[in-house]
């Protein structure tokens, strides 16, 4: 529960450049012929040189388009837009012109040339705009004759719809199978069901989803309607119980799943004083780093700005892990922080496609990363990070908390305990336990007293023991100072065997305690889920099916979302 700093893939996999030749010689020749507007060069001794007044694009050029070089010579000589070098009897200024150029220009405007809404003196006239027929509706101009297209090559027929198509498109409804971020927002985020796992951020192939100031997903640029954010959300389109079977096989559903082996273990070292229970998570990660099995581990750290607020952190050394040992009881949007460029300053000098990472997270986060890795789509900024996760460690979890509700409202406002006073927190035997920096317990209450601070979406989760992880670690089922360890995969077994020499361990002390809490967690989930729980059904749930079960609006953008 919380975020600890301490198979078989049966689904099918799913999966733009040009250049321009350089034409340096042509550009060089043409640049000598063109007339460019410019300012005369002024040296240190040229005290009396003045810049001529700027002329418009149509000013005083009687040379025509076929003689750009003459205009260019005139400008280089410091003169304005036309050349009177041989005619001393004629002179021009912005107010007077004896050469007739301004007269020609005025006549051109009068005859229909120039800018339509500017008079002969350059004054802007009144502009008239056509008001739209109705707010939010395209203008109905059916029956009008739009300006014919010009410049169409001879013999080419353009089958282009007329402007009336716009008014007809107003009545087209979005297809039900097209799912946008707006649907995820409507059904999960706005409903308070988001569990802050970050899977939607990682899944987006256009990097259109970010993390807002409220630690919730938000749209940061245009959504393409690809549906992936919906499909992979454990509270939306991902049937998470189906993912258990895809990852671990048919037996990975009942009880606490189908583990390889189970232990009660602890690390015997001085640094474990700050760790949670037996410090096994930190011990495993430290060993994997030391043996070169991983380049880093995505864990949680405490925010520098807000005490006991969890943030994602990439640990790349034993010292990083020790400094961040312990549990923080709020989410980090972990899967939204798999953009390796964010951690470039901490990563060794090797290519990202060779990177190997461990991920520590809640069961829902592990479900999310497993589903993402089962498909070969390009997840843009998060792609290398998603592919780099080789080891997953799940933390036993019945529910997680909204940081502001737990620390701000429940503890500080209602119980007078500032987050700065807290040295350690734990949820054990159905109790919320809070300790001061001196180790003295300052809160011991039933966890139900803090129910209003829990993430609402956690109620729908039946995965207390992290069915999709390589290793699951928690405190339930072992005595104080020991951690309960469930090894679920061969990858997890490799990590365990590497760490074993550094551990004091024995058989799991109380399997019944873990099985009992897993059963309780499933019962609560079955009461909260408004859809069928079916590990044999398709992995992805259509939005239309979800809307039918949860009463969510179809196409919320059509109904004023």
Q: How is the largest sheet built, in terms of strand order?
A: 6-5-8-9-13-14-4-15
Structural class: alpha+beta
User: Beta-strand level of the residues, as a percent range?
Assistant: 5-15%
How many runs of DSSP E, i.e. beta strands? 15
Spatial gap, N to C terminus: 34 Å
Biggest sheet record = 8 strands, mixed
Q: What would you report as the Rg, rounded to the nearest angstrom?
A: 35 Å
Low-pLDDT runs: 3-40, 46-89
Please give a structural write-up.
The protein is an alpha+beta fold. Helix content is 26%, strand content 13%. The protein has 16 helices and 15 strands. It has helices at 24-33, 68-76, 101-110, 164-169, 181-189, 199-203, 228-232, 240-248, 280-290, 318-323, 363-373, 383-388, 403-415, 490-499, 511-528, 543-550, and strands at 3-4, 209-211, 217-219, 261-267, 296-302, 310-315, 327-328, 357-361, 389-395, 422-428, 431-436, 441-446, 471-474, 483-487, 503-507. An eight-stranded mixed beta sheet has the order 6-5-8-9-13-14-4-15. Helix 8 (240-248) crosses helix 11 and helix 9 packs across helix 14. The chain starts with a strand and ends in an 11-residue tail after the last helix. The model is unreliable at 3-40 and 46-89 (pLDDT under 50).
Topology:
Blueprint: E1 3-4, H1 24-33, H2 68-76, H3 101-110, H4 164-169, H5 181-189, H6 199-203, E2 209-211, E3 217-219, H7 228-232, H8 240-248, E4 261-267, H9 280-290, E5 296-302, E6 310-315, H10 318-323, E7 327-328, E8 357-361, H11 363-373, H12 383-388, E9 389-395, H13 403-415, E10 422-428, E11 431-436, E12 441-446, E13 471-474, E14 483-487, H14 490-499, E15 503-507, H15 511-528, H16 543-550
Parallel strand pairs: 5-8, 8-9, 9-13
Antiparallel strand pairs: 1-7, 2-3, 4-14, 4-15, 5-6, 10-11, 11-12, 13-14
Helix pairs in contact: 8-11, 9-14
């Amino acid at each position: 529960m919380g975020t600890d700093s301490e198979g078989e893939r049966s689904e099918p996999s799913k999966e733009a450049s040009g250049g321009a030749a350089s034409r340096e010689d042509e550009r060089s020749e043409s640049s000598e012929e063109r007339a460019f507007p410019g300012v005369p060069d002024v040296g240190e001794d040229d005290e009396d040189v003045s810049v001529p007044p700027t002329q418009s694009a149509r000013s005083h050029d009687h040379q025509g388009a076929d003689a750009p070089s003459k205009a260019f010579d005139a400008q280089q000589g410091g003169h304005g837009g036309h050349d009177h070098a041989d005619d001393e009897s004629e002179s021009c200024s912005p107010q007077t012109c004896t050469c007739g150029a301004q007269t020609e220009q005025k006549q051109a405007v009068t005859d229909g040339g120039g800018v339509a809404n500017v008079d002969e003196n350059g004054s802007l006239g009144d502009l008239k705009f056509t008001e739209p027929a109705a707010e939010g509706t395209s203008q109905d101009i059916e029956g009008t004759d739009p300006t014919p297209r010009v410049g169409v090559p001879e013999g080419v027929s353009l089958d282009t719809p007329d402007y009336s198509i716009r008014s007809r498109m107003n009545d087209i409804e979005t297809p039900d199978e097209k799912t946008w971020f707006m649907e995820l927002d409507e059904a999960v985020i706005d409903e308070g069901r988001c569990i802050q796992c970050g899977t939607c951020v990682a899944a987006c192939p256009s990097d259109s989803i970010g993390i807002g100031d409220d630690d919730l997903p938000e749209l940061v640029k245009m959504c393409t309607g690809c549906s992936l954010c919906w499909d992979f959300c454990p509270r939306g389109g991902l049937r998470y119980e189906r993912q258990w079977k895809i990852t671990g096989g048919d037996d990975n559903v009942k009880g606490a799943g189908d583990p390889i082996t189970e232990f009660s273990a602890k690390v015997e070292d001085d640094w474990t004083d700050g760790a949670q229970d037996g410090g096994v998570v930190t011990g495993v990660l430290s060993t994997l780093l030391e043996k070169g099995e991983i380049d880093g581990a995505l864990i949680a750290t405490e925010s520098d700005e807000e005490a006991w607020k969890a943030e994602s952190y990439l640990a790349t050394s034993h010292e990083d892990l020790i400094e961040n040992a312990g549990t923080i009881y709020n989410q980090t949007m972990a899967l939204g922080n798999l953009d390796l460029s964010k951690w470039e300053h901490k990563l060794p000098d090797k290519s990202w496609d060779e990177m190997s990472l461990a991920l520590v997270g809640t069961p829902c986060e592990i479900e999310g990363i497993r589903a993402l890795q089962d498909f070969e789509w390009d997840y843009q900024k998060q792609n290398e990070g998603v592919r780099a996760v080789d080891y997953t460690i799940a933390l036993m979890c019945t529910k997680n908390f909204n940081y502001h509700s737990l620390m701000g409202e429940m503890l500080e406002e209602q119980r007078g305990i500032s987050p700065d006073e807290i040295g350690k927190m734990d949820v054990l035997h159905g109790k919320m336990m809070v300790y001061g920096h001196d180790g003295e317990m300052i809160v011991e209450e039933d966890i139900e007293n803090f129910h209003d601070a829990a993430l609402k979406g956690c109620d729908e989760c039946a995965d207390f023991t992290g069915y999709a992880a390589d290793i699951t670690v928690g405190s339930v089922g072992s005595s104080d100072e020991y951690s309960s360890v469930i090894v679920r995969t061969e990858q997890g077994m490799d990590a365990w065997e590497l760490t074993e020499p550094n551990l004091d361990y024995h058989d799991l002390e109380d399997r019944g305690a873990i099985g009992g809490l897993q059963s309780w967690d499933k019962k609560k989930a079955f009461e909260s889920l408004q859809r069928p729980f079916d590990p044999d059904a398709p992995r992805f749930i259509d939005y239309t099916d979800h809307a039918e079960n949860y009463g969510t609006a179809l196409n919320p953008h059509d109904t004023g979302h």
